[in-house]
Design brief:
It is a single chain. The chain contains 16 helices and no strands. The chain is mostly helical and 458 residues long. The protein has one domain (2-446). It holds the Pfam family MatE.
């Protein structure tokens, strides 16, 4: 009886979620390729890449709420058969994504003094600015691609998103090999070569998504790009009000990890480089949960659009269990093979590799600690976005990450002298508090039918 009840939800969740997981992993693999190849180029360059990509992602997190927020809106509108709402929300999310990309570009162009002001080593800050002056132009294609991903995911067209993302990976690796190391007669550009490679791939992926979204027969009735320049101020405001809290939530969570990068930079360049490797390994597993979180948003949004409260609960149970199973596998891998995983990023001939390997393998234990809570907090966010509840999750994120995570990390690492392990215990504390509060809000409010999105307490 239980199997018959949940089997359709499991099939639908995996059919929708696995391509999203794959596309997130492929996108993440581009960052992994950059880290691995720069890690083999130089330690200072690797530390600069860690800081530069953290800087980029802080600004990206703030703008990504518009593209993520419309996923639930579009899914609910499709379930209601409201074609006009689909077009209006997707189009204005693209407008807001473009506006955000243009507004944050100066911060990346003049990033070196900012990085120096927060205590980074001069050589690391210099290399980081070199990277960001090129990679910063990728903010626009990345945000627009994210919005188009949401648009297509809400229509359950995730397979094409996966293939477009996958194709970008070998292109990025090839361009990295040519431009970072100066192969095939190209100049040796180091971190700037990695930035050029990433920007090229991001532009190609955005163009491919635009072409597919315009061609897709099932989407033609929405006329997404017809008279794209025409403003829709009411819908722009609605998407902004929904998306800004999501962006701030992502900023609060991303800020926790970026804050740990900054503080690790205060400890030392080697520690920062090893920390970046351990964090990226954790980020790879996070992509699994992020894909399931996106699926949760669509599935719950569809059920809400149909007015199906039972279907919403069953979909939520299913996606939570799937993500929990992924987390258990990640915990086992991190505890059993820490040195093997960290060693994938390092050049065995580099004399600093043994030190980086020792530090990084030690941090993998703490990464294993927060796998379960990291999974549950992002699934909680996905469920709440499906019912268009974004303001209180923003408050929960700020409390969990900035009033718990960062102070605990700083206190343990520097006041109590625990060092790098203390920073990671701060991450564990912040993510655990967020997971508990977010899941409690969904299951004790929306899932029980006590609240509608408009009635959810602030």
């Amino acid at each position: 009886m239980t199997y018959d009840r949940y089997a359709p939800h499991l099939r639908a969740t995996l059919a929708l979620g696995l391509p999203l997981v794959g596309s997130h992993l492929a996108r993440m693999a581009i960052g992994v390729a950059d880290t691995v190849m720069i890690g083999r180029y130089g330690v200072e360059e690797l530390a600069a890449l860690v800081i530069a990509t953290s800087f980029f992602h802080i600004l990206f997190f703030l703008g990504m709420g518009f593209g993520i927020g419309v996923m639930g809106l579009i899914a609910a509108a499709i379930a209601r058969g409201d074609e006009t709402e689909v077009r209006r929300s997707a189009r204005m999310a693209l407008w807001l994504s473009i506006a955000h990309a243009l507004l944050v570009m100066p911060a990346m162009w003049y990033s070196e003094p900012i990085l120096l002001a927060i205590g980074q080593e001069p050589v690391v800050a210099h290399f980081a600015q070199q990277y960001l002056r090129i990679a910063g132009f990728g903010m626009l294609p990345v945000l627009c691609a994210l919005t188009l991903n949401s648009y297509l995911a809400a229509m359950e067209r995730t397979q094409v998103v996966l293939w477009i993302t996958l194709i970008g990976l070998p292109v990025n690796i090839f361009l990295n090999w040519v431009l970072i190391f100066g192969r095939l007669g190209a100049p040796e550009l180091g971190v700037e070569g990695a930035a050029i490679a990433s920007l090229t791939v991001q532009l190609l992926q955005m163009v491919a998504l635009i072409a597919y979204a315009a061609w897709l027969p099932a989407a033609r009735k929405y006329h997404l790009f017809q008279r794209f320049w025409r403003p829709d101020w009411a819908e722009l405001k609605a998407v902004f009000v929904l998306g800004l809290p999501i962006g701030l939530t992502m900023l609060a969570e991303g800020g926790l990890f970026v804050g740990s990068n900054v503080m690790m930079g205060w400890i030392g360049t080697r520690e920062l480089a090893a920390h970046g490797i351990a964090l990226q390994l954790g980020a790879i597993t996070f992509m699994l949960h992020l894909g399931m979180s996106n699926a949760a948003t669509v599935r719950v949004g569809q059920a809400m659009g149909r007015g199906d409260r039972t279907g919403m609960r069953d979909a939520a149970v299913t996606v939570t269990m799937v993500s929990f199973a992924f987390a258990l596998i990640a915990v086992a891998a991190f505890l059993l093979f820490p040195r093997t995983l960290v060693g994938l990023y390092l050049d065995a001939n580099n004399p600093e590799t043994p030190v980086l390997l020792e530090i990084g393998a030690g941090l993998m234990f703490y990464s294993a600690l927060f796998q379960l809570t990291d999974a549950m907090q992002v699934i909680g966010l996905g469920l709440l976005r499906g019912v268009q509840d974004t303001r209180v999750p923003m408050v929960i994120a700020v409390i969990s990450y900035w009033l718990v995570g960062i102070p605990v990390a700083y206190g343990l690492a520097f006041v109590m002298g625990v060092g790098p392990a203390g920073l990671w215990l701060g991450l564990v504390a912040g993510l655990t508090v967020a997971a508990i509060l977010l899941m409690r809000r969904f299951w004790q409010g929306h899932a029980r039918g006590d609240w509608t999105p408009a009635q959810a307490p602030v």
